[in-house]
Queue: 4 jobs
Job 1
Amino acid sequence: MKRFFLLLTSATLAVCGCKDIHEPEDAKKPDITLTIGNVRSTSESITLTLSAKGEDLDIYTRWGVTYSETAYKTMGRAISVDGTPSDGSHEVTVEGLPSETQYYFWGWAYDREGNRIWTKDSTKVSTAEKPKPMPAKLSGTVIGSVYSVDYSNSQKSTTVNIKTNVFDGNYDTYFASYDRSGTWVGLDLGKKHVITKVGYSPRITQPGRVELAMIEGANKPDFSDAIPIHMIKRPAPERQMTYEDTYCSRGFRYVRYVSPNDVRCNLAELEFHGYADEGDDSRLYQITNLPTVIINTANAQEIVSKENEISSNVYIISENGTNLLATSETGVRGRGNASWDQFPKKPYRLKFDKKQSPLDAPASAKKWTLISNYSDKTLMRNIIAFKVSRLFGAAFTPYCRPVDLIVNGEYRGCYQLCDQVEAAKDRVPAKDGYLIEIDAYAWKETHCFWSWKGTPVTIKHPDEEDCTQAQRSHIENFFNQMESAAHRSDFADPDNGLRKYLDIESFLRNLLIGDFCGNTDLLWSVYMYKDAEDGVLYTGPTWDHDLSFDNDYRSYPINANNDFIYITVPSPASDAVREMTDRIVKKDPEARKMLAEIWEEAYEKGGLKDLPAYVDETAALLHESQELNFKRWKILDYKVHMNFQALGSYDAEVQFMKNTIKERLVKFDGYVKNND
């Protein structure tokens, strides 16, 4: 703690130690008032008047200053007033204050023997905010991508259209990077600076090439610790500077402009304004109202594999820039099947070096997913399906939060940070058992089997490297026994039929969730888990709903069907499962009764009727992010993957899905209750 220096105007004050600060139980308060007033403050000092008034002034008054409301209990220093003049007033200036912006002053009264006879309640006094230096246009060493392009011959160059041009004050010169992605230009400022404003001007005739460009700051020359300072969200006018204030309190030595994907770094001028300061993390930049996830891979490698992780630094900025999760040595790789193989907007898996609960997720875990939702132009079908799962009372529903994603300085779009489907605490409750998936893509895996009825099954837990032959044999045999029981004439027998192997209630909840949502993949992507050797198979969790709610030409229009979707939209990969499902739903009276009860509970009491309103809420949450996403991925006018249609706007896509849900509520209610 810094020493306090005291300047006195009408009395002598001293810095001293305090003892016996606990007030005696039989203490009698003197007829005296101790007050603080006339407070004046700067960033470095507080000036105030300390007053002691009353009938009995034949006492000592002593004043203390602390950093917290309760710190007086252990305080070793105090401002002391020995004796009191007739008016009891002293103006005191406390200087040399540290960085704290608020303090607590205490008053004590002592008799002539030095016994404390009264303590005044604390009074909070705030200092003025520390004035910041005046920002100025910054200079430094020019850094950036090595090669430019010579447009006269389309060849690499280090002498024509070079990066120093963006700092020469001339709108007619420019930097044109040779490569079309991952290119950048910036400054080494020599020491840390807080950036308060950026200015930029695009290459003449190319105003759109700055749109979605990222401006980053870092304190490592390779930008492995880079975080965003600002994002340019629209084209900029030529032959003039566009200035935008920035709101990032961290200090950076290195600053740069990163060109958008598949666009040459075409920039005429670039400016950074700010002041020299270490800064802090009290306010960081978010692209939109959503949390911002930043991935900086080792050596800026592109993520191209589902098998091989790349060590990365990962940052998650949330709560209006006031909360930061920063991790190093996080493994990042691709994930998914069709979403990885067929989509340009790739999904990813994160594996932190230690357990984390990003964005207040319920689970503390190492593995997390970033879902791309490329074929879902509402960007929310998975979010809505997870809501439906919770309304139907599923034992576990994955946590998810929409986020904006940056990878190596490049904006990638609106994603969904989500639980990894795994057997673990606060996730699938099968840590000591088994997690499997009825999986049409099982043929791509090595840790899998085909049942006697031809159902493809992938073993998710235990992992292949940890799974013993005995464990593999057990789960394969158990699944076959379940399928056999499902096809026997006595399958509905409560003791020796299907219920001996399958928890019917969880199976029906999962069926209602998927079928209500109109998930075409309902029966060819089904998770099941078994929590012990002697347990039964439970069904869930809900997963992979980007084609739900009439987003698949194979099932459109779902509300024209007169039966469950698992009946009307069969899949060859799930023939055996469909047959089993049909027997449960149509030929087991107790299961049929349970199905109706689960539906009624969710429909009448669980809030399912209010789902269209939740769609509106989610659309409002995603509004700013979706605008940027569809600038990055220009697909609103095009059908992608299994899309039945392309409506041309985000609002139209959301309205269509909401109308589908409204119709689905009426339609589904009818045949759940009445289908025999």
Job 2
Amino acid sequence: MNKKLVETFIIAKVLFFSFAHVHVVFLRKNLDHEMCYHIPFLLGKPTGELGQIQLRHNVLKSNFRTLPIGEFIHNGYFFYNIKGMRGDYNNLFGLCNDEHFCVFGVAEEKIFRFCDTSDKNELHLQCLIMVMLSIIEGKNMPNFYRTFNLTKESNMEQEKYFRSADDTELFYRYRPAKDGSYDKAIVLFHRGHEYSGRMMFIADELGFDDFAYFAWDARGHGLSPGERGDSPSLGTSVADIQAFMQHIEREYGIKAENICVIAQSVGAVLVSAWLHDYAPKIRCAVLASPAFKVKLYVPFARAGLKLMYRLRGNFFVNSYVKAHYLTHNKARQESYNNDKLIARAISVRILLGLYEAADRVVADAQAITVPIQLFISGSDWVVHHKPQHDFYNHLGSHIKERHILNGFYHDTLGEENREVAFKEMRRFIRQRFAEPLQRVDVTHAHIHSASRIEADELTTPLSPFSPRGAFWAAYRRLMKLGANWSEGLKIGKETGYDSGSTLDYVYRNQPQGTNKFGVLVDKNYLNAIGWRGIRQRKVNIGKAIQLAMEKLRTADKPVHVLDIASGHGRYVLDSLTTDRLPDSVRLRDYSPINVEAGRKLIEERQLQDVVTFEQVNAYDRNNYQNLDPRPTLGIVSGLHELFADNDLIMNSLYGFGDAIEEGGYLIYTGQPWHPQLELIARCLTSHKEGNPEWIMRRRSQQEMDQLVEKAGFEKVHQWIDEDGIFTVSLALKK
């Protein structure tokens, strides 16, 4: 069958079937094979030997690149979701997202994407026009859509891209399991300066044929974009890990519980922060020589770099570490010295962020309960040992191992005698996957946990004659004095620093005072790290609301919002866009002050037809019954953080579980970390009746997620500020 005949056959099929919404058949030359377009799946059964797909793309521009695309054979069939991928199969190489319909055809050893649109009818018309043009003009299938070349060797290493949370396209390598398995994976994270290509040898040396392997290039490294050795922030790189893992689960159907993570040095710090901040349900993690504290060898170097960063902004420092200080392996040394993809410098922004993230993760490692295997290089010239030991000792994992490798340099897994480490890794990983997934139940952390002990210590009064007692007494007096000039301090003093009035003032972020000095004091107050985190939480809640509304509308569900602790309601109202409002919004708060202020905001914005505000107790489960309309989106922000008792929290969560129908969503916030807990406890007052002291018991993200799960929800997305203080999560009602 010649190409003209193939194309004529295609157009005939399109003409005959397009508006009947049935399939179009594409035939491939020299292969007894057919692929059928049928929403929502593309199905084909190969009889020849097929394997790796090579992508060459030219999208209306003169930019070309070649990407190896993933394994696409499973049990002799292709399964590609055309719109809204679900289940264990990939969409067609990630080229047709959840919002689009696509049509693909096969001819002349290539797979062509003819058309791509969000409208089903437009799809058929678009496909028809493109094929007709190609026939009339006597040209090949339209080349401004992506083209896939079929090659052999299905288990070859493949080069791919995924999109991060900020829509940056990051590079990664993928090696399918040699035995054809598709349910387990090992994900590799490289050390600083390096990239994925220097980690893939681990796949060979582990020798696990039943695991797929993934390895990324962090932004600013390898083939990923960004200035070499830099990232917008360390928090951005941690969020990239979350996006990468979600990509693997979504595109390859590999669940988090069937994933093992292996990371070195800086990569191990990023992974540790990810484990702490996002509480993923992975099977286990192997961390080699995590760079919790880099040896700078210059006295006060960290303080000096911090000062210079404040004065001149971001800049770069070259690594002092030579290859022969990284490993005894001569071949590894030579490859490091000659590899042009090695990033020789690191930005001060990332270096300082590394220190800050490491400090909080090591101090709060009890929040990490994933099984951990830790390797410590005994002769490490690059990083200090003590924080690694502290991290291990603080871990909340019930299964954890520590191996000190005497004589090893920093490149632990690339050392001359690395088989010592690999032997332990093989055993540890096999054991974890041989056993059922073990999750540590932390829902009783309010009774006994490190955070409970921490809160009890903050509640304990200090002697006024002790240095700490005298310091905080003086601090309180200064804040009371500052309230005479600073509007923010005045509002906090009068209504409580955790009140809706205070939060509304923080959201507005407009320094006010009785004079210039008062404005200066107020500006400093509003710029506190905790308030910066609160404002970012507001931004993230807005993102969560928009995403939830989008998902509900895609599922043809109405958008009925219920917020149970709204304060003045500003963070909800600011997230609403006039072009497409929810069907209804019900705001609630316990405080009559907040209710009155919230109703004024609603009137100012002329939203009375959509938004109502009620005075209701959020912790009475009966207040969630018989709501009309029944909410499809629940919101609870900043409320649970004010109360230590999980039993009390469950009243509201069970209430949401009663009220929200299956397929609805819940937005909830958390506070896994806060650097100002003692200042808050010793100096700031609360609006809570009978409890004027503001004592907060931190909840780990895992604790918060498990409480939400008990109420019948499953987390599907999460955001966190750069300092790791406040989280915003979106959960689906199961």
Job 3
Amino acid sequence: MKRTDSMRQGVGKKAMIPPALFVIGESLLLTFILEILSRRNFMDACRFVYKSPLLFLYGCSIVSVTLAIAMLFRKKVFSATLVTVLWLAFGIADCVLLGFRNNYPLTAVDLQMGLEAIMMMPVYFKIWQIVLIFVVGAGAIAGLVVLAIKSPRYRREGQRGVLRACLFVMVFLIYTLVLFTRPSGVISRNLKPDLYSSYKKYGFPYCFCYSFFNVGIEKPADYSPKQVADIAGTLDIDIKVNEQEEKHASGPIDEFIESVRTGDFASEPEGYTRDAVESIREILRGGAFEQEDGERPNILFVQLESFFDPMTVKTVTLSEDPIPNFRSLQENCIGGYLSVPTVSGGTANTEFEVLTGMGMQFFGLGEYPYKTILKETNCESIASDLHTLGYGTHAVHNNGGNFYSRRNAFSMMGFDTFTSKELMDIQDYTPLGTWPTDDILVGEVEKSLDYTPNQPDFVYTITVESHGDYPKYKVLDDPEIRVSGAKDEGMNYAWEYYVNQIHQVDDFIGQLIDMLKKRDEKTIVVMFGDHLPTMGLTESDMKTGSLFKTQYVTWNNFGLKKVDKSMTAYQLLADITDEIGIHNGTMFTFHQNRYKYATEDEYQNAMELLQYDILYGDHYVYGGGNPYPASDLIMGTEDVIVKQIIDRPYADCYYISGENFTKWSKVYINDTKVSTTYLSSRLLKISREDMPEGENQVVVNQVGSSESIFRSSNTLSFERKADDADAAGNAGGAR
């Protein structure tokens, strides 16, 4: 026993490297490696250290805190290795994502999308690459487990350990104070909207860590019922104002506690004062509109995945115009440039802006409201606003219903139905087999319009055919449109694939318009790109000078005058509904009155306050409470029907006949899912062994990711007799 104690003490006395020196040296090296990965260039990392040494050291201080925490554990080698591996994993993930998302870096929100990320891996990686990733990951985990077992346990050395811990606490408190107080100029909190530029300027450790804390919308200074009432002004909303002013934090400690409570560390909007907010009522006075009577048109919004005019790229030459239908609409109907909040990815954020009229500029770093605030609260949107006017509201998307948590988000925003790919009989895919083609959406949009025959409809359609990845090798043997002028042969192939895909999307646009022309219904269609594609574009490559501009066009059959104007995604629906005489909804009426503001700052400040009140505040704009509850969202617009279970003589299977089956139809027997083979929209097959003897209850469910059941058929009772008594041609029927 003495020998053992002596040995343990000896381990504790081993001097390897003093912990303080290790933390300093490791943090310097690790931070530099992270900057190389973040910039994807060794020399750029060197230039960052040389030109911005204080910013580099600030990043080092963040890394050093995490390493210092590791030093407080007795298994210091393991703890330090674990911290180092985690930082390197984040850095490598950032480096990879930058390539796939056109310089859109890793943020905390990306870590919340683990399942979606795994689902997307086959799109961007080859099978061997995916296998390698998992092998390396498994190897790293296994190595850490072995190290956790084998690494020595160092003794805590009395007062020296206490002093070391106290020193760490002091450093941590100082660091916290620096991080969360208002910056003095070295570090900025204004890291949006161009995240890549912010990451390059301030370094990966600071920006990445900042994304964990900067979430939601900060409670504006002097937020009160009176301010909301003043901003609402004449929005035709009855607001009950409590004249008693709210008590606000008056000191730095109170301010810090409130920021922790709200989960947001963003800075207060510049120029935001009580006087500025209270003046909004006068600005908006007389700005409300009367509702117009008469037949209301169908409103169709089509969000085109990664769609823009490639002829706005300076360096690429095309053999012909890939988007003639879109071009014709540009020339003859309302249209213009659309400023979107993201580039090369983040479709859901453009979608959120359009549907709610809220701007992403007020949210946290790299945040997706679909994945955060809409997980827990319902939200007024165009769907709920139009529903009050008698509209049926539908969403259509030829991708998974759970991706970006859309099933939940559309319910929270008040949609009636959502038709995702799981409810579609998809047969055709892109040349790589990655995505369904968009022509399937023409019929699905028409089904949505037919779902509510005696009322106008709002249909929000999301395409997917032109989604990346765009391979840098030849895929198309005889492309209809040829490309030249890219920086190398690989990029020529990537552009060739992309422009031929959007050419197919343009065909879908033509088919959609032709279908609508045949319907005797007053209709307006709005089509727009959600973001630029992942092509490594820079601002200098674009004739617009911006990576955050796409185009929108419209079509209508009731003679709207052509007016071209550019706007933001969160203003789009407000302007379209204004054109057709609809002036309804808090945010949309607000945007329709935006020209009443004297300055852009006043408009933005008021917009931020309304967003905060609706999503995070006390709903003063509604008089307290939320009058827009989540809907009982129905997945799909057609019933799945099981008609018959067919037993063929001497067959080792049963056939399930019915209607509206898809590749995502799964047979459940007595509430247990069994292996199902899709044969057609009217026929499924299951193994004979999966049908137990005796009475069985058979249901066909439309199943999404994570075993989510989107829609269920009727229940069919079927009795399987003992094998020796089976009758040839036995068939089960509904009971």
Job 4
Amino acid sequence: MFFKKYLYDRNGLWIYGSVLIVLNILLTQFPLTNTFGYEFAAVNGLLFVVIAGLQTLSLLKKSEFVIEKLIKNLFILFVIPFLIIIVYSLLTMFCSFWDGLIFYILIAGTSILFGTAIAFIVNLITRRFNRVLFFLIILFTALIPILEIYFNPQVYFYSPLIGFFPGNIYDEGLSADWKLAFHQLIVAVFSISIIFLYLKNTSIILKYKKYIIASIIITATLFQLFSSSIGYSTTFSKLNSVLNKQIESEFLILHYDDIDSTEAKFIALNQQYYFNELQVQLETKPSKKINVYLFNNREQKKILFGAGNADVAKPWQYSIYISADSWQNTLKHELAHIFTAEFGSGIFKIASGFNAALIEGMAESQDGISDDISIEHLTKLAYNNGYVVNVKSLFTGLSFFKGNSALAYIYSGTFIEFLINKYGIEKVKQFYGNGDFENVFNNKIETVQKDFEQSLIDEDLSDSKPMADYYFGRLSIIQKICPRFVGDRLRKAYQYLAENNLDEAENLFKEINSKTLNYSALIGLSEIYIRQNKFQLAIDLLSKNWKKFEHTPYYSNLYFRLGDIYSLSNDDTNSELCYKTLIDENPNFNLVLLSNLRLSLMEKNILKDYLNADDSTKYNLLRQLKNSSYNFSSIPVLISLSNELKINYTNFIKGFNKTFIVDNLESSYAAFKLSEYMLENGDYINARKYAALSLRFKDRNIFYYAMQQQFKKSDWFYKNADQVLNSFTILTIE
């Protein structure tokens, strides 16, 4: 009798309940959705829209509709996922019960109301094909955010189906805000109003249903039309009104706002330089003018665009979205994405089958540099130290997103480089467009993969495990514990730290570490103890935990931090040991430079003064350090401080009037960084001179390829910058 009722229950409660049980048990086995938080609520929100709608339509078919029964059934369905995730979290771990509860109520709860309201609307229109119409409305609702992302600049969206999508996976911190709450309130009020009207007087509703349906359509349309004005979408019109300054050339338009005009012109020149390079490398050029939207900072880009930590290109729009604090590392990469639109496929003009490894690999191969090191060298470093990636798997399905993003990018980029060198750019462009490896290259990917892996073997790099760990020992967001919770709490904690609210910051850092030991939280805690002159507490904290981060970049960074704290506590012996160990292990060249600099300051008995100083004092101390001869380790730091302090370039460069001899990696790298700084400041003659100087040291120089590229760029700026700059049209849009 029970099973008969189960199988033939026309109201569907048992069936829908079973579906929810199975699916939510499955959700506990996947990253992100196994946490009581946003992703769990969003997936269930989408399920609830469909299930609540179908349940309502089933009950409306009854001769006598009983609202109490509908409420009871929907409540039971609402509770099922909640109980499953609560039990699972009790058996494993809660990231944040309250964050999860807020998301669940706001998103899943509102979705139930929305699905129910749509069912009532459908029932007004027709009873014969009500399920078909219901799904058509759901599909249309789902289509709206897709259209927004396709036609608008944004990568975020708000939708009654899942509440909202924040933008991209690289912005980890996420918590419910008033913007989401207000959006869901609007959806809830809209839904409840429809339900109330329907139940209040069905006969009147049926009599005036045409007008009511028209009113609903008009209301929804008006919200969509004005969504940009109230912050729920970003149109090009809105973006252009904010980024209302332009520098236009024949092929590119730079849109910017609160950026110094000199810097904006420099960025525009870089655009033109990279455009020329890509045109030659890819043997094509974009068929439309490229719009480059330059945001003041990550925060502005997050609000207006949806992605704060990631710069993005939309090839189908011929537009890219970058930040003033990141463009140096991403501009050429993102421009390369636009060039690939000329041989991409589909309405998005990207790689066939949305193949992420092909999309990013092509752009990465054209850039060719990461952290001033060629991607080929980084891939060899990874391969010869145990960080091996199966290329065939990488270029299949969603494998690109499953592991370490740094590995995915460099392997895909270097493999595309290998294909270009072996088969030529035209063949690779064909592969990008159709995704058919065997037919394009007349070879199996497994065979080519073996040749590729053979090209990566380099015995000289097999003893560079600390460096490999530094670059590739990170986890992806789907591998991290409570990434949304941790990211959000870190943001708030560092905000408190900036405000010198040490108690609140400390509480948040400790809360984070109670869930998962976190590098940034440890650094934050150590900073609090330093400000409180509790040096031994800071030493104990890092000494106890730094080895737990072995085989990650945080291992070396924490050890370096420990060296600084030892110095602050007047323990020069242990401080020196930390710096010398890092120099010997060489996990990262910048860490080596900084360690060498610390030792130089220690020799002059001014390291503690330096560590306690503000930026201006640090700058002056470093200037004094090189009075007699250049301290090459200090030069990259001096450049960084001069940018922070906005030091006059002429005054800065006066300190470099002695003979600059390049005979080792430190001096070569210093010349390289000086060349970059000189180029940024419009000193093209010296930029070219110092770029040439950097090339004088080649032996085991991991930066040599980047130095060659810097010389090419400096030479181009020296010969062409003034002429190109005069061809630009500069204007402000009112």
